[in-house]
Amino acid sequence: MKVVYDEKNRVAQKQYRVDGTGHQTKYLYGEVSKQQKPGLEYGVQVDGKTCIEYAYDLLGRCEKKTQIYPSGKKKEITYTYVPGAKEGTTTALVGTITENGKETAYTYDGRGNILEICTKELDTGKVTDHMLYTYTGMNQVIREEDAVRGRTFTYAYDLGGNLLENKKYYLVNGVEELRGTDTYTYSSGWKDQLTSFNGKAITYDAMGNPLSYMGMNLTWEKGRQLKTLKKSGTLSQYVYDNDGRRIQKTVGDKVIRFYLDGDKIIAQKEEGGERMDFLYDEKGTPFAFEYQGKMYFYQTSLQGDIIGIVDSEGSQVVVYRYDAWGEVLVSSDASGFGLSQINPLRYRGYYYDQETGLYYLQTRYYDPKVRRFLNADDASVLTKDPEQLTEKNLYAYCDDNPVMYRDDTGMFDIVSGIFGAVTNVATTYFAAKVTGQECGVWDLAVAAFAGLVSGMTKSSLYITLVSAFISGVGTTIGSLAGGSDIKEALWKGGMTALCTAVSVNAIAGWKIPVSDVVKNISGTIFGIGNGLVTAGVVASFPYRKSSSSSSKKKYLTK
Fold first, then answer.
1. PANTHER family in the record, alphabetically (predicted)?
2. What does the angle CA 23 – CA 25 – CA 30 come to, to the nearest 5 degrees?
3. Who's near 196: CB < 8 A, 6+ residues apart?
4. Tell me, what's the pLDDT at 550?
5. Torsion 384-385-387-392 (CA) sign
């Protein structure tokens, strides 16, 4: 893999070769001379031809995406956003997505959870999809309703976040009829460890890795690394590189090798068989693949699910539909050669192992039917919030909220930590600018560290206080170094600690929204918004020196 960076150290181009052939992907950024916003991605080119173009609104939110197919045909996808609570304000939440003559509308609760997803045909008004979701006070999904097909799924949990049962209802003559129940039984020792699912026993080794699971026999190596899996008489074997990334799998006598760019698969090749090449945008989202010399393009949902595949003419050849947890409910195929089964990227863009029904998420395997990871997460996550151990379920998928969250690596909290760091830096910077302060490298470093800590700990009281202390002490030291007297430095430090505890940690504790559109802008929008809130709080408690001081105030009231 050859990577070229531009003068701003952004990835401008990637080029790879596997057995002498490959693709060149170029990323086009905004140019002031074209009245574009620098830093935003305006297009993607593959082998010199533009495949994707983006257009943005004044806030830098994507309002239109244009897909350009090799035939020259274009498809436009447009986005609108949910208005803010006050008149004249807006949010980063996607309100509608319009494409192919259909509009999909999203409704949210006060915490940003999706309540409804409704798709209708624009010319007839016919509703083709209508999903409704209900959550607990801890944001766990407890009800998933398909209003169009008359299907409802309910979920019940114990206090530790373990699923206890899943009931399936079908609407018949206006009445919901129970059609099935999934039951879960857990260990009396390790209470998060599933010992049976629907009466099928599961056994484990000492590290919490399953040895017998849903009719499969498994072996493990290097701790939590799956080595072999035998299902229905077929043996699958897995090989990983030194970083723990899967580079080969053997299913029966079929050997498939994976060629990687970081944790992204750029190509997979079967020994003596076919090869697939995968293409990604600048943010690492898959948008196309090549198979048998032809290019195909992914259709994705707001949450990042692969919901369809179109050919180089722009004609749809595959449709997928999933439940909230990623189980494939529909897989229709018009390709004529089983492309829906050949394509491995599915729910959330995860890699789906057709032979096992499991998703490979880098460090672990996830079972969408059971709705849990096969084996336990690294036990180190328990120390991130020591006074709230009940929140640390090492087997749970996405904190029981698969509608809103995603977990590309099987180590979910790390992503939240990064988001917390970025948000805190943005908050600190904008608050300083609004209040007329200077914001140096030291200030941003302190903000990043405090945000990282708070983002990885789900906003617990203990870590909130730690984060506030770190920010406050950092600001005090920085103020003293900048020439402030002790009283002014302590005041600034106190206000920084207060704002960190009240506002920054609340945002940093959020999980990253799964929407690619929201993900592209959420750091900036939430950072600016929270920065202005922080600035307002600080500005309303002005520091006043003694009357003998003629120094200019650092904080001003309106």
1. PROTEIN RHSA-RELATED, PTHR32305
2. 170
3. 184, 185, 202
4. 30
5. negative
Distance of CA 538 to the CA centre of its chain: 33
Token pair 């200030």 is found at: 443
For the stretch 250-301, pLDDT in tens is: 999 999 999 999 999 999 999 999 999 999 998 999 999 999 999 999 999 9
Which ranges of the chain have pLDDT less than 50?
387-390, 413-419, 430-431, 433-436, 450, 453-454, 456-463, 503-558
Helix (H) or strand (E) holding 496: helix 486-499
For the chain, the structural domain boundaries read: 1-77, 411-539
Phi, psi of 221 (to 5 degrees): -145, 160
Closest CA to 190 of 414, 413, 392: 392
What pLDDT digit, counting tens, does each position of 24-73 carry? Answer: 999 999 999 999 999 899 999 999 999 999 999 999 999 999 999 999 99
Q: Please tell me the predicted confidence (pLDDT) of residue 442.
A: 52
Task: Compute φ and ψ for 29, nearest 5 degrees.
Answer: -105, 165
Phi then psi dihedrals of residue 373, to 5 deg: -75, 150
* Amino acid code (one letter) for 313: E
Residue 232 buriedness (CB in 10 A; 0-12 / 13-18 / 19+): exposed
3-class SS at 443?
helix
Q: Is 188 exposed, middle or buried (0-12, 13-18, 19+ CB in 10 A)?
A: exposed
Beta-carbon contacts of residue 167 (< 8 Å; ≥ 6 apart) = 153, 154, 178, 180, 181, 182
Helix, coil or strand: residue 322: strand
Write the CA distances from 448 to 420, 453, 510, integer angstroms.
Answer: 8, 9, 16
Distance between CA 298 and CA 77 in Å, rounded?
Answer: 13
CA distance 248 to 258: 6
d(C-alpha 114, C-alpha 477), whole Å: 43
d(CA 417, CA 499): 19
Helix (H, G, I), strand (E, B), or coil: what is residue 375? Answer: coil
pLDDT of residue 471: 66
231 Cβ partners below 8 Å, 6+ apart?
215, 216, 355, 356
- DSSP class of residue 349? G
> Cα separation of 529 and 518, whole Å?
15
Q: Estimate to the nearest angstrom the gap between the alpha carbon of 161 and the chain centroid.
A: 20
Q: E-strand spans in 364-470?
A: 365-367, 372-373
pTM, 2 dp: 0.76
CA distance 530 to 544: 25
